[in-house]
Design goal:
The chain contains 6 helices and 5 strands; from the N terminus they run E-H-E-H-H-E-H-E-H-H-E. By secondary structure, the chain is an alpha/beta fold. It has one domain (2-161): P-loop containing nucleotide triphosphate hydrolases (Rossmann fold, 3-Layer(aba) Sandwich). GO terms for molecular function: kinase activity.
């Protein structure tokens, strides 16, 4: 089984992937790690500051082929990151889709307003964020609103974090 976890920045994608790794013993791939490996090795002209659309266009085809390879080898894998497009399923035939679960994490406006200090405090719970100055209440509200709109428009599975930060994914 392949588990895709995407969503707005600071929604806990990496923390959820870590939790699932510990629970299910599935390995996980951070698309950010792939991105930085390709950038640092000089295999792309893109930078960490490149446009998200450009990064998605570059990284997603690579990730798709990794997913297909894992499924063909009957291997489990958790993949997390913000570079999973909302029309992700168009890249897979039915036999692959049957083995993929997709989750998009989104925080509600109320949750963000009531828990913004917690969002900032847990930002580096799994990976160190070297520069988190761009994470403001306004940016988190805008990002989550945009991601929720896209999730609804693309009719994808999303997990709305509204009252408490509790995410339970049944596999």
């Amino acid at each position: 089984m392949i588990i895709l976890i995407t969503g707005a920045s600071h929604t806990g994608k990496t923390a959820l992937a870590q939790k699932l790794l510990e629970k299910c013993k599935f390995p996980y791939l951070s698309i950010d790690h792939l991105k930085m490996g390709l950038i640092r090795s000089g295999n792309t002209e893109l930078t960490p500051m490149s446009d998200d659309a450009d990064l998605t266009d570059y990284l997603w085809p690579i990730v798709c082929e990794m997913i297909k390879t894992a499924i063909e080898n009957k291997q489990n894998l958790i993949i997390e990151g913000c570079y999973i497009p909302f029309d992700w399923s168009k890249n897979f035939e039915k036999e692959y889709l049957d083995n993929i679960r997709y989750y998009c994490l989104v925080m509600s406006e109320d949750y963000i307003r009531n828990h913004f200090a917690d969002i900032k405090r847990y930002a580096s719970v799994i990976e160190n964020r070297l520069d988190d100055e761009g994470c403001t209440l306004e940016s988190v509200l805008k990002d989550n609103s945009h991601i929720l709109e896209l999730a609804i428009n693309h009719n994808v599975n999303y997990v709305l974090i509204d009252d408490k930060y509790e995410i339970d994914i049944n596999l």
